[in-house]
Amino acid sequence: MNIEQDFLEGKKSALAKLQKAQKEKKVDEGVLPILFIINESDDYYTTSSCYGRIVLLEIPNIGDKKAAKFLGKWHRIIDVDELFVAARKAKRGLIWLLSQSPIIHVTTKTNELADRLLKTAIACGFKNSGIKSLGNKIVVEICSTERLDAPVGKDGVLFCNKQHLELLTDISNEILKKSTQKLKKFEKNLGKVLSTHKTTNN
Amino acid sequence: MNIEQDFLEGKKSALAKLQKAQKEKKVDEGVLPILFIINESDDYYTTSSCYGRIVLLEIPNIGDKKAAKFLGKWHRIIDVDELFVAARKAKRGLIWLLSQSPIIHVTTKTNELADRLLKTAIACGFKNSGIKSLGNKIVVEICSTERLDAPVGKDGVLFCNKQHLELLTDISNEILKKSTQKLKKFEKNLGKVLSTHKTTNN
Predict the structure, then answer these.
(1) How do residues B98-131 score in pLDDT, each as one tens digit?
(2) Which backbone phi and psi does A91 adopt, to 5 degrees?
(3) Does A166 score more than 80 pLDDT?
(4) What is the pLDDT of residue A67?
């Protein structure tokens, strides 16, 4: 197969997976409009995405991410009491609170298209974006720098008092709100960039 | 100027800046061997670097990074008491503890060389690496995923008790140790990749 065929086959397979995931409610709804815009273009397709989330995680041994267990996972702003409730499930190992900004992986047809998408993402505030692979499969990762990665307890016990956990909740929510603003800006700009590009090529 | 000339001019200027920074002791010593290996190759040059660090930061207003103030900054493992001492300088705004893994920016001559460097970095554990720009100036960012970004207090007051701050110190140190291991692996592999490349081209 040549690169063009590889791209078309890859897109077909990625879109089928996305459709299946959508039916099973496994795709974050907030990110869907952006996925649609990208996948409508002949030059790009998405392979994975997350709208951004707040996570309470239990990691039995340092660095052993495979054994990590979700105590709580929210794709929306949360209340501090939800963290206390989720933390009750903790048993052994470190408890981390994470607030993660959106992440989208996009395959592109050419290096130039990858660079164009990357520059648009960075201009919309997704400053941690980068091209993860060139060559046969060109992949752009779109993501932001804002994040919170805080160890908050160990072996079933939260080390934070309420005041501290409230502060962590506020900041986690703030990160999620900022992410939503950036996604909206990206959606708007992406529409312009991709449609301009289509017109130019027609 | 053509791209080749741009690259040579850019390299000359970057090396002069590096030399000046070295004289002023502004370059992290631990990362120097890697910078030397990269800059010895005709195909690459470094433009910025950090060995990895633990930072206690004060941010007067959320998101206002420009106004952020270092309460403490260490390119080595630390003791919990150093955090307590540094925190005494805090006055107004959020106090964050950060443990950051190494970061190196490298300019390359061609897209293929960028992809080769990126794949080597990822194989050595720098999984957050990516190409930040293609076109006239090709820039690879080498960095890792391990990090700690934890709000630990507000308006001059630490919200963590000693047990919690000890846990945060242990994990921050762990991240720094992991980074050192990865840098060593990268140094070893980089030597092989770049020398192989030089031989092939001669």
Answers:
(1) 999 999 999 999 999 999 999 999 999 999 999 9
(2) -125, -60
(3) yes
(4) 83
DSSP B137: S
Identify residue A18 by its one-letter amino acid code.
L
Contact state of B151 with A149 under an 8 Å Cβ cutoff = no
Which of B15, B74, B9, B54 lies closest to B148 in space, CA to CA? B54
* Contact call for residues B174 and B168 (beta carbons, < 8 A): no
SS3 sequence of A28-75: CHHHHHHHHHHHHCCCEEEEEEECCEEEEEEECCCCCHHHCEEEEEEC
Q: How far apart, in Å, do the first and last CA atoms of chain A sit?
A: 26
Those residues with Cβ within 8 angstroms of residue B144's Cβ, 6 or more apart along the chain or in another chain: B101, B102, B125, B126, B127, B128, B178, B179, B182
Tokens of B155: 């308006």
Question: What's the residue count for chain A?
Answer: 202
Bridge partners, A57 (sequence order):
A70, A96
Q: Mutation test of the interface with chain B: which of A80, A100, A149, A177, choosing the one with the most B Cβ atoms within 10 A?
A: A149
- ipTM summary value: 0.88
Residue A197 pLDDT exceeds 70? no
Nearest residue to B84 (alpha-carbon basis) of B69, B68, B102, B97: B97
pLDDT at B66: 77
pLDDT in tens, A92-148: 999 999 999 999 999 999 999 999 999 999 999 999 999 999 988 999 999 998 999
Closest by Cα among B62, B157, B76, B51 to A174: B62
In angstroms, what separates the C-alpha of B166 from chain A's closest C-alpha?
11
Mean pLDDT lowest among A25-34, A152-161, B13-22, B45-54: A25-34
Nearest CA of chain A to the CA of B57: how many Å?
14
* Number of C-beta neighbours around residue A55 at 10 A: 19
Contacts of A163 in chain B (CB under 8 A): 159
**pLDDT at residue number A182:** 95
Sole residue written with tokens 């070893």:
B188
Distance CA A185, CA B7 (A): 34
Q: A24 phi and psi, to 5 degrees?
A: -85, 10
- pLDDT lower than 50: segments of chain B: 199-202
SS3 content of chain B, % helix, strand, coil (to 5): 50, 25, 25
What is the Cα A136 distance to its own chain's centre? 24
Query: A9 is written with which tokens?
Result: 């086959």
CA distance B168 to B175: 11
